[in-house]
Amino acid sequence: QVPPVESGGGSVQAGGSLKLSCTAPGFTRERCGMDWYRQAAGQQREWFSYISPDGTTRYAESVKGRFIISQDKAKDTVYLQMNSLKPGDTAMYSCQTRGNWPCFSSRGQGTQVTVSS
Fold first, then answer.
1. What's the Cα-to-Cα distance from 45 to each of 39, 53, 93, 117, rounded to whole Å?
2. Radius of gyration from C-alpha coordinates of the chain
3. In whole angstroms, how far apart are CA 100 and each of 32, 33, 48, 53?
4. How many Cβ atoms from other residues are within 10 Å of residue 70's Cβ?
5. Which tens digits make up the pLDDT trace of 6-64?
6. Cα dihedral across residues 113, 23, 81, 37: positive or negative
């Protein structure tokens, strides 16, 4: 399975917004779900959002109400709209496919998000 590719990261001031994209060829055909993770410098990797093939979403408490996950099946792409960003959201953000056969777990390289105060 081709690894997902993330994009859309960058630098933003606190209170601002960014929209990340995760494109995974075959994601829709293979009925994968998609997880988003982030890892801040010196910290453990943290799961914070998921979307299932049927569109069911899950969020960690740390981002609930601020982040919105969505998908465009025609483009094999999952989006992450991040609002009200805080310095504590600064991290490398990566997506990872999840599911049963024919979906295999595959993780992207990540995109950096930096939030300044």
1. 4, 24, 9, 23
2. 13
3. 8, 9, 21, 11
4. 13
5. 999 999 999 999 999 999 999 998 999 999 999 999 999 999 999 999 999 999 999 99
6. negative
Rounded to 5, what percent of the chain is helix, strand, coil? 5, 50, 45
Which amino acid is located at 16 in the chain? G
Question: Residue 73: how many CA atoms within 13 Å on its side-chain side?
Answer: 11
Supply the pLDDT for residue 2: 83
Contact 71, 34 (CB under 8 A): yes
Give the closest residue to 15 by CA, choosing from 69, 87, 64, 105.
87
pLDDT in tens, 64-75: 999 999 999 999
Which residues contact residue 65 at a Cβ distance below 8 angstroms, ignoring those fewer than 6 apart? none
3-state SS of 53-78 is CCCCEEECCCCCCCEEEEEEHHHCEE
